[in-house]
């Protein structure tokens, strides 16, 4: 029984309270040093003019889009931008690749076209075992592209193979708290980077 099953009650207000309490516990266990390393990697990519790619499936695809938006546009860093792209967003490309080569290829073939040595790819997956992300990370690592995983559950294969990982410690199948935490990471990182850009001239 996972924690959401454990806290379930027919009283929606009581369930809401328990859900938020549990989510708070999960967030408190995330390694903030790993978040710091992630932010420094994004800043370094910006300095070098490298591209930062985001990938994920389902709810994590939406988080990938949100992350790319918040870095590329939300930071208002137009003179020295964060070159952030979500590979989940072009439906013509995704459906063509899925139809012609299989769904496992929908991200890696895009990275083969766009990616360059020194770029960064961020894979977002609760299980850490999505085959299309594993293939993308495998290609990235062989091509000099840094890999960063945002995971949950036990972290899966992505946690083991990534150059960096921010792990959200939930039980298996707890997609809600896992994806909640990944979105909070997006907003946390964005909040920091907006202020970093604003204060650049003062350092």
Number of helices: 9
Briefly note the structural class of the backbone: alpha/beta
Q: What is the general shape?
A: globular
Helix content: 55-70%
Taking strands numbered 1, 2, ... along the chain, how are they ordered across the largest sheet? Answer: 2-1-3-4-5
Spell out the CATH superfamily.
Glucose-6-phosphate isomerase like protein, domain 1
Order of helices and strands: HHHEHEHHEHEHEH
**CATH-assigned fold name:** Rossmann fold
The CATH architecture would be 3-Layer(aba) Sandwich
| Number of extended strands | 5
- Count of discrete domains: 1
What is the strand content? 5-15%
What is the CATH first-level class name? Alpha Beta
Radius of gyration: 17 Å
What features would you describe in this structure?
The chain has 203 residues and is an alpha/beta fold. It has a single domain (32-202), classed as Glucose-6-phosphate isomerase like protein, domain 1 (Rossmann fold), CATH 3.40.50.10490. The protein contains nine helices and five strands. The protein has helices spanning 3-7, 12-28, 32-48, 59-72, 91-101, 108-114, 131-142, 156-161, 175-198; strands at residues 51-56, 83-86, 120-124, 146-151, 164-167. α8 links the parallel β4 (146-151) and β5 (164-167). α6 (108-114) packs parallel to α7 (131-142). The protein starts with a helix and ends in a 5-residue tail after the last helix.
């Amino acid at each position: 029984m996972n924690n959401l099953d454990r806290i379930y009650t027919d009283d929606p207000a009581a369930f809401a309270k328990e859900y938020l309490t549990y989510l708070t516990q999960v967030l408190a266990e995330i390694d903030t040093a790993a978040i710091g390393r992630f932010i420094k990697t994004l800043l370094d990519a910006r300095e070098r003019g490298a591209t930062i790619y985001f990938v994920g499936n389902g709810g994590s695809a939406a988080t990938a889009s949100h992350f790319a938006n918040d870095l590329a546009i939300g930071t208002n860093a137009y003179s020295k931008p964060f070159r952030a792209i979500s590979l989940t967003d072009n439906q013509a490309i995704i459906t063509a690749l899925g139809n012609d080569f299989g769904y496992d290829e929908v991200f890696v073939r895009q990275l083969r076209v766009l990616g360059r040595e020194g770029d960064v790819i961020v894979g977002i997956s609760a299980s850490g075992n999505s085959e299309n992300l594993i293939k993308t990370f495998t290609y990235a690592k062989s091509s000099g592209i840094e890999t960063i995983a945002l995971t949950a559950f036990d972290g899966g294969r992505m946690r083991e193979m990534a150059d960096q990982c921010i792990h959200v410690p939930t039980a298996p199948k707890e997609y809600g708290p896992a994806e909640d935490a990944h979105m909070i990471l997006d907003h946390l990182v964005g909040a920091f980077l907006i202020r970093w850009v604003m204060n650049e001239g003062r350092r």
